[in-house]
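Table S5 (text form). Sequence records supplied for joint modeling of the three-component complex.
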Amino acid sequence: MLTSSSPAHAPKPTTALGPVLIAQNLYFQFGNQIVLRDVSLEVFPGEVLAIVGESGSGKSTLLNLLYGNLTPSQGIVQAISTTGLQPLSALSQQTLRQLQRSRWGYVCQNPRDALRMTISASGNIIERRMAMGLRHYGTLRQEARHWLEKVEIDPARLDDLPETFSGGMLQRLQIARTLISQPALLYLDEPTSGLDVSVQAALLDLLRKLVSKEQMAVLLVTHDLAVARLLAQRIAVMRHGEIIEAGLADQVLDDPQHPYTQLLVSSVLPA
Amino acid sequence: MSYVAVKGGAGAIGAAHQLIAETLYPKDNASDTPVDQIQQQLDQHLRLGIDRIMAEASLYDRDIAAQAFLQAQGDSIEAVFIVRAYRATLSRFLDAEPLKLSDSQPQRHVSAAFKDVPGGQQLGATYDYSHRLLGYFLHLPAPQNAAEPTTKPEDDASETRHSGVMQLLEQEGLIETSTAALTEENRDITQIPPGFPASRAQRLQTLARADEGFLLGMAYSTQRGYGQNHPFIAELRQGSVNVEITPPELGFTICIGQISMTECQMINQFHGDTPEQATFTRGYGLVFGHNERKAIAMALLDRALRAPELGEKVQAPAQDEEFVLSHCDNVEATGFVEHLKLPHHVDFQSEIATLRALRAHPKKGRTEHPDGL
Amino acid sequence: MDYNFAYLDEQSKRAIRRSLLKAVAIPGHQLPFASREMPLPYGWGTGGIQLTAAIIGKNDVLKVIDQGADDTTNAVSIRQFFARVTGVATTTKTVKASIIQTRHRIPETPLQEGQIMVYQVPMPEPLFKLEPRRTETRILHALGDYSLMYLQLYDHITRYGRVAIGYDFPVMVHDRYLMSPSPIPAFDVPKMHMSPALQIFGAGREKQLYAVPPYSRVVPLAFDDYPFAPLQAQAPCAICGSQHSYKDEIILDDKGTRQYICSDTDYCEQHRC
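The corresponding structure-token record, covering 917 residues in total, follows.
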């Protein structure tokens, strides 16, 4: 069942399913400045790939390229669509948007950027389902309640405005709003960075539960190695716009090869 | 005419004023009408212009306004400025009793929310349904029914008092009750300047003397989605109303004259989280003279600015109290915008010197690949 | 002063007609047009007036209504304007008119093939209350992304138990474009669906026009379990007794006594005899 198409540095999980995201030799530049240099990666169903690095390493730019918000200067991104893998450059804006709102999901660091703050919590949750054509109010309510419970928010808050929610609850709401369409591919951009440590832990736990239940492929961008260790099976380390080391999470964190990774690991994790 | 600003400019300033005086009061024109007659004609032929000046100057005096209008050569903001400066010299001896607008004899009375209302719709003198064709009023067709007088008969005099549309809606519980309490602190913004957040009374006073064009533009933005509020005019009323005072030495109320006012009562989108709580909300506009445009705009803005009070999110410029109230006064605005004409060469000189210094010592080329992009 | 037939010059009228043809070809889609100042103010119906001016011919018979009535001030004014600048015949009878210009109503009398309804539109963008930037709403139309509007309906049902939109009820045209039917009461919206008449919409101040060709699907937004349910007439007409027409509410006295009469004056007259 194994194929030999994956890049050498990326060990592949044993699964019968092919990748849902492939990036090949991506370059990206702002003016004369090269932001990304020859980045390749693959993500498979059911796995979490973490991209770690300091701020400015190019990891957020990479995420935007992989999500279709930016176009690479060179290289190809292919991602799962309704008809299998498709190069993003071949998609119309309309198709891209539909994919972003159904087959894919994106959870950003600041939930206020993603939520509609003047619409009730339940309205936020079911927006994707309405965009996908569900037109039954009762069913929408049911699904909203179901997902509110899934992200462990009191169902009594169903029709409250997000304005009245705490930071951690807002992030849970964003997760419910995103996962309701059961995306095959999920992008997480520093999902817990803005939160208190205790809130972070609970949220990471929840994310791990939700992600492992569905056969979702997850691309996680974080500067926090602890978050990567908790969620990811594989880790890619970025520096100066390049992936300098990649491998299974334990391997990268416990036996880093590149001097920069060694520095990163030793500076964050207690020795 | 060349001049050297600031220093030695006295001669130039004197000459500049002489030029204006010659335009205003030409000496060699024998057939010229005396100035006081021109002022009278202004009030007669350009009534609405005079009304606007009185409203923005917040001083009801037709003669003073006409005099200022003439002195400003028709520049209404300059005229407002002159009247405001005059107003500042007036001492204040009494507050009038609240105006009884519903008792006034309306020259105009219009409801857009209802086809007919107590007191009747009265069209009055309006451009509303005229066609904007040059000479339109010179070639009007003869009235269709000659027996019907062009003005409405005054149905038996001033005792007829009709309840307002708002009162009727209030009786049915369909509209919120009115909320603008007058306190000692917010009684007059020209005596006690308001801060932020302002009370509704302070806001309304500020809007009443605000620049018509500014209010119009802001109000228009609310209709186009930037702070929208679903307005319906419940009642628009223009007419003369008695001004009454109660001198303490007399102990009873006397009428000291009549002024023309325009009032707009606006019904707005309903509000409330449950069906039982849902009611319409209010917007209010009141202006000196005959100025429906400004009264309506004011009512729209009053409602938009009530957003925080009604639990709405402040998102649009028109809902931002500090933004609207700080920039709506045309005397303040024209002063600061036009002051850019004044000499600024000391400041500018230092800017030039700084820029020259920057350019003389260019920084070394940037690092090709800085850490942290 | 002498003006060209229907006020505007022929070139301007032709340009508007070209935009109208395109609008008919893309039902419900808003098109920009070079709107001009008319001798009536913006908000009084300059969009409708320009459309009527562009399509009217010497043999047309024009009816103008405002709030359903031929005798309301604005309707009178616009009718007089066209009588003056075209000399065409005018009528108050729906069945006799070839062009009906309207503000806020659709006549109760069913329209027929060959008739043209000209709607005066204040805000052509159905999404403007939810997203004020036209640069954004144009993208949403292009993508057919109307979840914003559905969210509003959802929110209404949650808060009020029903969709609380009384007029200007959003409709889908031919399953593609979300459209403002103009501020007609929701009561009138079903009359647009599969209408044998051509329906054109003009917004002068916003410089947009759009169209619904004859026999087009015009479907108000709704949920399967909360179907479109416009409020019906509250009482029979005090003049003609009609149970089925849309009514004006008249306040009779200071005690707030109300009376209901047909807003469509022509219909009321026909129905009386």
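Note: The interface with chain B takes residues 33-35, 54-58, 117-118, 163, 240-241 of chain A (CB under 8 Å).
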